[in-house]
Amino acid sequence: MAEHEHVRVAVIGSGFGGLGAAVRLRREGITDFVVLERAGSVGGTWRDNSYPGCACDVPSHLYSFSFAPNPDWPRTFSGQRHIRAYLEHVTDLFGLRPHIRFDSEVKLMTWDEDNLWWTIETTRGTLRADVVVSATGPLSDPKVPEIPGLDSFPGKVFHSARWDHDYDLRGKRVAMVGTGASAIQIVPAIQPQAGRLTLFQRTPPWVMPRMDRAISGAERWLHRRLPVTAQARRGLLWGIRELQVQAFTKRPDELGLVEQLAKRNMARAIKDPALRAKLTPDYRIGCKRILLSSEYYPALARPNVDVVASGLAEIRGSTLVAADGTEAEVDAIVFGTGFHVTDMPIAERVARADGTTLAETWKNGMRALRGASAAGFPNFMTVIGPNTGLGNSSMILMIESQLNYLADYLRQLDVLGGRTALDARPAAVDAWNERVQERMKRTVWNTGGCTSWYLDPSGRNTTIWPGTTTEFRRATRRVDLAEYEVIRKPAPVASRKSEALA
């Protein structure tokens, strides 16, 4: 990276959000941009999460870009390897590699209010950009809880998103901490290898069967020869999920029937009443993300698995102690404890001209206009920002909506001309967030009786979008300049005098 390189747009991250932004820039005719990636390859969370059993819980044909359909998905729910390969394919298909700066972690970016650009310090040098698009994603930085005694544990410790493939689990006593989307895939994958597997469960999840199957050669042939069939398949998957949204957002009581189906799913595999009681949630289904697995419960019923219905509280040497006093001797600890979602680390590295960081601005909760623009941070946009997450559908749909907003944002800057910046008005940000939070009040995520990673420390849901993907697409179709302050760089004094004389 050349020192003081200047580009029109800098994109941070090369997962679905970052690559999608890069493709959209190319399609808008913008080639003066870079993608800053801290790792040595593209893929984002699908590069970092390579744990055994890693797969997506959204159907393959819906978990892909509309502008880059893949007729050759091998399964209805794709595994990590195939999703990562798809992102590599998208990178090459749209000629993105010349724009990507690998091993270029952003250390700090500061707004220059005199020149109306961002100065970005990375591990490979400094550059400037008129517009910054942060696409680091909420599932990029693992969260490991502060457990007393963890530093002195003599065995192996790693997070699910930083899997140590060199460590052999065969015959080992393994502790799995957490019962989220990663854990329910890891447990059945490692259970046959482990000598003993102890699951520390703070809160049991609701688990539905994962109706996964191989996609036949005939289906793939048909999707290649008649792309409209793949489009129809995607449309059907999307439509079903759009219809489900009402139950999550307006009528949570209707989810009771789904709970009964989930309990029957558990009863088929878990015959022990005591274990079944441990695994039965006490909150409304959907309050936390509904997990999909057909192997999780059968694995928990195996004789070499123990379920501790309490969170990990302390570590004494090789002994793990749960909050209820249960102890387990282990050789390795795997944390499936999620990510920094409501406190995204990138926010600590984004600073206004006066040094105030985005993290400081968001200390009482993340908030951004239409999930993209934070007040006080001109020409800075977030993909998968506050309140853009989904509880039942594909995030790719939300990403593409935000890319529409990004494209119009850049068009508005072009129309305004000169060196110009747009800064979201605080009143507009407040109005947007008040509407979102008002709608959030009756959703299952706020009323379901659980504590989830959707909520920030104050209990405010800053993660989920309380509506359909169609509503969000409408809300992000165009940039409303009335919601922004237009900042222009004054013309040089000599130029102004010349204009006055003319």
UniProtKB/TrEMBL annotation:
Gene3D superfamilies according to UniProt: FAD/NAD(P)-binding domain
UniProt keyword terms in alphabetical order: FAD, Flavoprotein, Oxidoreductase
Transmembrane intervals: none
Keyword Flavoprotein on entry: yes
Any single Pfam family the record assigns to this protein: FMO-like
Keyword flag Flavoprotein: yes
Family: Belongs to the FAD-binding monooxygenase family.
Protein name: NAD(P)/FAD-dependent oxidoreductase
